[in-house]
């Protein structure tokens, strides 16, 4: 693999050795942070670092998560419940995870088969379901996820064609959008202040709604649209996901045009990067995108079985992972969701494994 510049998140030696964690059905966690996770496995073998020696390691594999007990400690209460009810001692397994969001030790994973969002509250050692109770907050097919600074959870439900919002206590708050607004809602992103919601409509072959719709996060009012179907500057063909970077920049994964399109906060086109191909810095099947605290851009590619890291201006820095039919750390068959938390820890979802 060619040696490419490492992302700035680990370039400062004062931040200590980079770490990584991979979560799965698999979820994958990788990290460049200095603070250890609330629950930590034994130190990983040296070979599970990225990039490989002799380069300086920027990320280190931490763990793989397949069930609730892989991330949370087993309590005496949980042991007693399993003895009484006969629950699986391995915990509740992931079925078909898609997207992931993480903040302050709370990890959310959407599961399209079980039809709810899983919450791993690591600091409290608790596991919860979100959106599985009957009523207006019940989910049908949750896909995209995001969390604002107040801890409110936003869920893009492709079955309901709406964004459902839940408080930090998991109570349903409100619904945004609906059938008239979307052809095929695929992801949701909220700005940190919790004022604007960006919902991506992937459209389809027979639809012209290849667009990002922007709503007021509190009132649900439609504010504006960004993009339209096409291949020109600022246009989309099957957009997949959006992340907010430094200076409020909007990074949109334009799947059918094999690129990332960048706008300012008000939807004005700035530039794009990427193209179709098998070379580093190109895309084959890009899916989700995440931004770290330094503005670096992480793009999952399902065909490559990895995520590539770019600078805020679109310069390739490095990549992590390889496509493989055999399960293992940083080996992916169908990666989809990705998130980077406040500490620089990277979470990646593999639907296949």
Rounded to the nearest angstrom, the radius of gyration is: 19 Å
Helix vs. strand class:
mainly beta
Shape: globular
Element-by-element helix/strand order = EEEEHEEEEEEEEEEEEEEEEEEEEEEEE
Distance between the termini: 25 Å
How many strands, what sense, and barrel or not for the largest sheet? 4 strands, antiparallel
Q: Any low-confidence stretches, pLDDT <50, length ≥5?
A: 1-26, 33-45
Spatial strand arrangement across the major sheet: 1-2-28-27
Relative strand content: 35-45%
Number of distinct helices? 1
Write the layout of secondary structure elements.
Elements: E1 21-23, E2 27-31, E3 49-50, E4 59-65, H1 76-85, E5 97-103, E6 106-111, E7 116-121, E8 126-130, E9 142-147, E10 153-157, E11 162-166, E12 172-177, E13 185-190, E14 196-201, E15 211-216, E16 222-226, E17 239-244, E18 250-254, E19 259-263, E20 269-273, E21 286-291, E22 297-301, E23 306-310, E24 316-320, E25 322-323, E26 331-332, E27 335-340, E28 345-350
Parallel strand pairs: 25-26
Antiparallel strand pairs: 1-2, 2-28, 3-4, 5-6, 6-7, 7-8, 9-10, 10-11, 11-12, 13-14, 14-15, 15-16, 17-18, 18-19, 19-20, 21-22, 22-23, 23-24, 27-28
Provide a short characterization of the protein structure.
The chain is mainly β. 3% of the residues lie in helices and 41% in strands. The chain contains one helix and 28 strands.
Can you describe what's shown?
The chain has 353 residues and is an all-beta fold. Helix content is 3%, strand content 41%. It has one helix and 28 strands. It has one helix at 76-85; strands at residues 21-23, 27-31, 49-50, 59-65, 97-103, 106-111, 116-121, 126-130, 142-147, 153-157, 162-166, 172-177, 185-190, 196-201, 211-216, 222-226, 239-244, 250-254, 259-263, 269-273, 286-291, 297-301, 306-310, 316-320, 322-323, 331-332, 335-340, 345-350. The protein is globular and about 55 Å long. It starts with 20 loop residues before the first strand and ends with a strand.
């Amino acid at each position: 693999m060619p040696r490419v510049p490492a992302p700035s998140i680990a370039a400062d030696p004062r931040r200590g050795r980079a770490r990584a964690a991979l979560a799965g059905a698999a979820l994958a966690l990788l990290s460049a942070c200095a603070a250890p996770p609330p629950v930590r496995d034994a130190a990983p073998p040296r070979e599970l670092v990225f990039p490989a020696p002799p380069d300086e390691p920027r990320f280190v594999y931490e763990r793989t998560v397949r069930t609730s007990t892989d991330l949370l400690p087993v309590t005496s209460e949980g042991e007693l419940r399993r003895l009484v009810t006969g629950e699986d001692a391995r915990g509740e397994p992931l079925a078909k995870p898609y997207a992931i969001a993480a903040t302050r030790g709370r990890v959310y994973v959407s599961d399209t088969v079980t039809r709810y969002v899983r919450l791993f509250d690591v600091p409290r050692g608790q596991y919860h379901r979100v959106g599985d109770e009957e009523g207006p907050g019940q989910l049908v097919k949750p896909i995209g996820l995001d969390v604002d600074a107040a801890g409110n959870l936003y869920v893009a439900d492709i079955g309901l064609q709406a964004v459902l919002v839940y408080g930090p206590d998991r109570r349903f708050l409100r619904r945004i959008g609906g059938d008239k607004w979307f052809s095929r809602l695929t992801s949701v992103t909220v700005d940190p202040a919790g004022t604007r919601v960006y919902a991506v409509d992937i459209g389809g072959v027979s639809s012209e709604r290849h667009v990002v719709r922007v709503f007021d996060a509190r009132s649900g009012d439609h504010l504006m649209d960004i993009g339209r179907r096409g291949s020109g500057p600022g246009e989309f063909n099957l957009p997949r996901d959006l992340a907010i970077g430094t200076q409020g920049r909007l990074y949109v994964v334009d799947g059918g045009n094999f690129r990332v399109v960048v706008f300012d906060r008000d939807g004005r086109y700035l530039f794009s990067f990427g193209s179709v191909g098998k070379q580093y810095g190109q895309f084959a099947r890009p899916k989700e995108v995440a931004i770290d605290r330094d503005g670096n851009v992480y793009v999952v590619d399902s065909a490559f079985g990895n995520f590539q890291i770019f600078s805020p201006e679109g310069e390739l820095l490095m990549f992590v992972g390889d496509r493989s039919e055999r399960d293992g750390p940083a080996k992916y068959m169908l990666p989809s969701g990705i998130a980077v938390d406040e500490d620089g820890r990277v979470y990646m979802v593999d639907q296949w494994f």
